[in-house]
Amino acid sequence: MRILLTSHGSIGDIYPVIAYGKALLNAGHTVTFASAPLYESEILRAGLTYFQLPPTWEQETFTEFMRELDRVNHPILQLREIYKGALPFLSELIDRIDEALQENDVLVSSYLFPHYKVIAARQGKPFVSFAFCHNTIPSPDYPPELIPALRGLPYAIQSKWNMAFWHMANFVVDKTINRVIGKVLKEKNLPLAKGFLTQPAEIVLAAVSKALMSERGTTNSIFRFTGFLRWQAEESEEQEVRIVAFCRGEKVPILTFGSVAFDDTHAIMSRFERNWPEGKKIIVQTGWSGLSVEVERPEILVVGKMSHDQLFRHASCVIHHGGAGTTGSVLSAGKPHIIIPHIADQHFWAAEMNRLGVGIILKKKQWPETLSSKVYYMEQQTHYLARAMEVQQTLSEEDGPANAVNALEQFVGEFQRNSADIIE
Hints:
The chain contains 16 helices and 13 strands. By secondary structure, the chain is of the alpha/beta class. The protein folds into two domains: about 1-230 and about 400-424, Rossmann fold (3-Layer(aba) Sandwich); about 235-395, Glycogen Phosphorylase B (Rossmann fold), CATH 3.40.50.2000. Strand 11 (about 315-320), helix 12 (about 325-335) and strand 12 form a beta-alpha-beta unit. The longest helix has about 35 residues, at about 155-185.
């Protein structure tokens, strides 16, 4: 098959799709990844064909956009800001996807842009949505995030309550999206967005662990839990030498916020540095926010971009934001989590790690002052590490890339057979 992949956003929105593309390539398919130029080098490193999409933003512009999202507190309002950010180049984006798909057999898009399914439908080609988190999968067994569950009441009442709010959330999300981009969709002769939550595609590949995550409840059969798909930055021998010399055989806490960016980074890190105890080692990864320390201290090592797998091998625990990619990496490393969620699905992932018994949650406003006590707690409570290693073993027995490849192959085969029957 000739497969067109597309995703937009931060590293957490791109790397899992690169991993998927690599798995598809290894399975004998031809794979093109359409995305912004910022990610071209990583896409090419995986051996995939690159197709350029707007925006042509530099790293600084992406970082500032993440800061703007961090200022918004509600997930639906954050979604609105994402579409507002795409509005200036949305018309070109639609044209480019339409052009790229003409040379391919199937379109696989990240869940943020499900209206691409209409472009695929116009060309008579199958469309698949790709999700990095399972918080948007509707089920009668649980309500949407931020909606209280009616625990203790009869299941029939709970299920009606839950599904009523899923349909309500779907209506609000569709309306929010259409208010922002509806005019452009009409200009491109595309229908308004519909079914963002309830029917984003004929199948949705949820790239998270089925064994660990799918027990949230019975879900629609269109949602397929495949297992994590992880792509890594290249390992650095130079960084390894620095870290080994710093750790001296000791496992140390690691602080990383990935591609999250926020205001007042300098002030926040100054608070962290004032409250971090002397003599207690910690590794700080700069990330998109540019985390750093004002005064060099022998117990604080600052590192830049590098492989999570390489970095987390040295961790006693990992303090992070709860992004899907980072969470998957910490789970795969078998390390406990201290999660400081900032935006979007990060609050959900924090709750999931707490549910699994592998991590605890810190509030964003308080973390510089409370982090050291939580790190000491995590390192002393060895059951978190024991549970994290159990989860690591579970993940090692799943093959997310193979499951995701098989799911796509089966779906496209069914689509083609059904299309042939209609023609006959």
